[in-house]
Design a protein that fits this description.
Elements (H helix, E strand, L loop, with lengths): L2 H8 L7 H7 L11 E4 L9 H16 L3 E4 L13 H11 L7 E2 L5 E2 L11 H13 L3 E4 L8 H10 L16 H9 L5 E4 L8 E6 L3 E6 L6 E3 L7 H11 L4 E5 L6 H11 L5 E5 L3 E3 L5 E3 L11 H6 L3 H12 L2 H8 L24 H13 L3 H15 L1 H9 L1 H9 L18 H4 L1 H4 L12 H13 L7 H14 L6 H6 L8 H13 L7 H8 L1 H8 L4
Helix pairs in contact: 1-5, 1-7, 8-9, 11-13, 14-15, 14-16, 16-23, 19-22
The structure holds glutamic acid.
Length: about 550
């Protein structure tokens, strides 16, 4: 009885041969420099910014080399699987315009010749290769109870493992055919482990496309390649998939560097050429203690890609901010190419930062202010409305029912000006920022000393108010009334003898502004009045302090 018999005993239902599988996945016909890369998320119901960062890097690498980007759903971990988690992945990616050349549609149709693009549908393939490794004596069944659940097997190991702590040979690695058969006849389940060829003494060198040459201890663990449910963990599945699917560069987080030696041993055992890894640095934050830490799902709302939709950041702002993190040259490029879409900023693997970028919301907001400043009023209105339709239905109703008014608001200090306002960085702040458009102010930013004068002026002005048709007409009418009531309309004269006047024309405008908006600062009053309309403006001029 040899390894082939053991393999047959373990995998009686695996009928495919690995040669047949290899035939199904012919080598891709690539031009020089064309990158085939992938995004391989696990469906957890949550898209972390770090994952999205990888997707975005991969997307650009493929785009910039006319290469291929595919999406592979890594759903072999039953424990983590969450209903509708796939939808979250597709939703985030499609909103950000990350398009894939190959993927599986949500209703299960594979687009591309290297599918299925969902790992749970590839189990037969993994088992075929696991069987092959057993046949070749490179893998073996392990019957320790709860092999994945640690405790029991760890206890076993304490007694059976040899001293060298780098070595984690499994107690089951040398079972005979008869012993294996006995376990199987007993109905025991088993995992398949790789029979590492290393002793714990070897070191290996490997090349990372961002970090350059790295050196580490070679793997010396008989790690699980197929769990007792017949499904592989990440390491085995990705080695097979990335090979069959023709990945040339795999972008993944640098937390995988430590397991790369194990992955390389797998490639070797499988007889595959190792793929090239590009371990991207992890996005960090400066914690309260001033130290750098990984941006985390637990503490940082910005770690969740949904945050940006919920706050109403334009997707372009987020993408431009990520580009800025990937390569600091983007900022200069943006300055020199103000009206060019970000897609024209090309970068290659060598341009990706090797240093962990620090997430800084102020920077994102600055970028976003510029992105929003470039929108036309109509565009801003539409984006704001789309945001409200999803996250603030009552607001959407208002925006729709008086669309002309709100389009005008969005156009204010924007359309037809060289210097559009740069105070908005997401759509959720629009309502608060322009609260005075939605409702008459309740709090007035008026100085105590001015109250009496303001009330006097407004009583007069409101009585005589009619909607002006231009800024000039409006200002002239204010001047006439101001003069009548004893205000200086010439600032020079006012400065020479302030005691001769109740105040100057600027003061008068401030009274009107406070009555209408509640604040001493606002965009052009005439524009605000024309947005509010004659009746509402008149009502507000009746505000008293
Ligand atoms: N499913 C793995 C993850 O989400 C993919 C890692 C990789 O890109 O290879 O971390």
């Amino acid at each position: 009885m040899n390894n082939k018999d053991i393999a047959q005993l373990l995998f009686p239902n695996v009928k495919l041969s690995f040669e047949e599988i290899l035939k199904r996945y012919p080598k891709r016909n690539l031009k020089e420099n064309q990158i085939v890369t992938r995004f391989a998320p696990s469906p957890t119901g949550y898209m972390h910014i770090g994952n999205f960062f990888q997707a975005f890097i991969s997307y650009n690498l493929a785009k910039n080399t006319n290469g291929i980007l595919f999406l592979r759903i890594e759903d072999t971990d039953e424990k983590r699987k969450i209903k509708e988690a796939k939808e979250v992945i597709y939703d985030v990616l499609s909103r950000f315009g990350i398009k894939f050349d190959e993927y599986q549609t949500l209703d299960g149709k594979d687009i591309g010749n290297y599918g299925p693009y969902v790992q749970s549908q590839r189990v037969e393939i993994y088992q075929t290769f696991a069987k092959k490794l057993v046949e070749e004596g490179k893998a073996f069944p392990c019957f320790c109870k709860k092999t994945e659940g640690k405790e029991d097997v760890l206890k076993l190991r304490e007694t059976k493992f040899e001293d060298d702590d780098e070595k984690e040979y499994d107690p089951c690695r040398n079972l005979s055919y008869e012993e294996i058969k006995k376990h199987i006849d007993n109905g025991e389940s088993f995992a398949i482990r790789l029979k590492t060829q290393n002793t714990g003494k070897e070191r290996i060198k490997f090349y990372d496309l961002i970090k350059g040459e790295l050196e580490a201890k070679a793997n010396a663990k008989d790690f699980v390649i197929l769990k007792s449910d017949g499904v592989p963990p990440y390491a085995f599945a990705h080695a097979i998939d990335d090979t069959l699917m023709g990945t040339t560069v795999a972008v993944r987080g640098e937390e995988y560097i430590s397991s790369t030696p194990a992955h390389l041993e797998l490639f070797n055992a499988l007889g595959f050429e190792p793929i090239k890894y590009c371990h991207n640095p992890l996005i960090c934050k400066i914690g309260d203690n001033g130290h750098r830490r990984k941006i985390s799902k637990r503490y940082d709302p910005e770690a969740n890609m949904m945050f940006y939709f919920e706050k109403g950041y334009p997707t372009t702002s987020v993408l431009e901010y990520l580009l800025n993190m990937i390569n600091s040259g983007f900022e200069i490029w943006r300055k020199n190419n103000q009206n060019t879409p970000w897609q024209d900023f090309k970068f290659g693997i060598n341009d990706i930062t090797a240093v962990a970028p620090i997430f800084d919301i102020v920077k994102l907001n600055d970028i976003s202010k510029n992105v929003i400043a470039k929108m036309s009023g109509e565009e801003l209105y539409q984006n704001w409305l789309n945001y409200a339709l999803e996250y603030d239905k009552p607001l959407a109703k208002i925006l729709q029912s008086e669309s002309q008014k709100y389009i005008k608001l969005c156009q204010m200090d924007r359309d037809g000006t060289q210097k559009p306002r740069k105070d908005i960085y997401n759509y959720s702040m629009m309502k608060e920022n322009f609260d005075y458009i939605f409702q008459s102010p309740k709090i007035f930013e008026i100085d105590e000393d001015d109250k009496e004068k303001a009330n006097e002026f407004l009583s007069y002005y409101s009585k005589n108010f009619s909607m002006p048709s231009s800024n000039e007409e409006w200002f002239n009418s204010v001047k006439a009334i101001a003069e009548k009531l004893g205000y200086a309309i010439d600032n020079k004269l006012y400065k020479q003898n302030p005691e001769n006047y109740k105040g100057n024309i600027a003061k008068v405008c401030e009274f009107i502004r406070i009555a209408i908006t509640g604040s001493k600062n606002s965009p052009t009053l005439f524009t605000i009045m024309s947005i509010l309309g004659e009746e509402e403006t008149k009502n507000r001029l009746n505000n008293r302090f």
